[in-house]
Amino acid sequence: MSQQQTISAATAGTMTIGGDLKVNRMGYGAMRITGTGVWGPPADKPAALATLRRTVELDIDLIDTADSYGPATSEELIAEALYPYPAGLVIATKGGWERPGPGQWTHNASPKHLAGALEGSLKRLRLDRIDIYQLHAPDNAVSFEASVEALARLREQGKIRHVALSNVTREHIERARKIVPIVSVQNRYSFADRESDFIVDYCEQNNIAFFPWAPLGQAKEAHEAIKKEADALKATALQVALAWLLKRSKVIVPIPGTSSVKHLEENVSAAGLELPQEAYARLSAVSIPPASLRD
């Protein structure tokens, strides 16, 4: 059988999120299907739609997006490509940013903005309820509790199944959990960027899913370290980085993004890549100064 016929996100195993959403531990992040600067439509819309359709063929049943990707573009493309959605597909989206222009992001996690953002996401995704709705980032101009309380109210109204967080500290998670159950956390994390290490451990202890973004880290030294392991395993650097994440914790659900079917298939192949313990240990020992990892 060909690789195209055999690769499957299911080979990564599964995790049950929030007690009722069972997903394969290899998801898809839908930020890259937008235009340059995460702004506007993609340069090749047919390719973006084909990539989204291929995700479900590869048994990906968790797609992560946000109203700010485009803005609106990513959610619109997901619905155009996949609606009516296959049974069991979980779409996680986010609110809390505004987009003045290409490459520009401004906080707005006010209760009023979040309520409007959710309504927009529901309409674009053609859903009556969002399975996982994430606060995209805390807003220093708004009480964090007020933002979370707004999402808790929307959950009570039946418009959100589960509340989640993104770009947060452990303190944020603990404060939020006093208001509403938190089912997942999405932070930047990789073998070379382990600032959220203790948050991963906290999530594992509390059976909270962890969606890592930027799985390759941001430093030249990190790429050199992983290329060495990838060459030995006859795999790509991203495949090895994803395999490291899968081995790191049972609650990690990687969500690599791409606008290419070929790259999507390469990424999902990592679901079945067994990273030797020695290689895992070497990558775990990579230490990169945090300043060199900043975007």
Structure description:
This protein has 295 residues and is α/β, with parallel strands linked by helices. It has helices at residues 3-6, 45-57, 73-82, 111-125, 144-156, 170-177, 197-205, 220-233, 237-248, 261-269, 277-284, and strands at residues 14-17, 21-24, 28-29, 62-64, 90-95, 97-98, 106-107, 130-135, 160-166, 182-188, 209-213. Strand 9, helix 6 and strand 10 (182-188) form a beta-alpha-beta unit. Helix 4 (111-125) packs across helix 5 (144-156). The protein is globular, with a radius of gyration of 18 Å. It starts with a helix and ends in an 11-residue tail after the last helix.
State the order of secondary-structure elements, H for helix, E for strand: HEEEHEHEEEHEHEHEHEHHHH
Computed Rg: 18 Å
Strand ordering within the main sheet: 3-4-5-8-9-10-11
Shape: globular
Just name the CATH architecture.
Alpha-Beta Barrel
Distance between the termini: 41 Å
Number of domains: 1
CATH class identity: Alpha Beta
Q: Pairing-aware structural class of the strands and helices? A: alpha/beta
Which regions contain 5 or more consecutive residues with pLDDT less than 50? 1-5, 291-295
- The oligomeric state of the chains shown is single chain
How can the largest sheet be summarized?
A: 7 strands, parallel
What would the average pLDDT be, to the nearest integer?
A: 94
Question: How many β-strands, per DSSP?
Answer: 11
* CATH fold-type name: TIM Barrel
* Count of discrete alpha- or pi-helical segments spanning 4 or more residues: 11
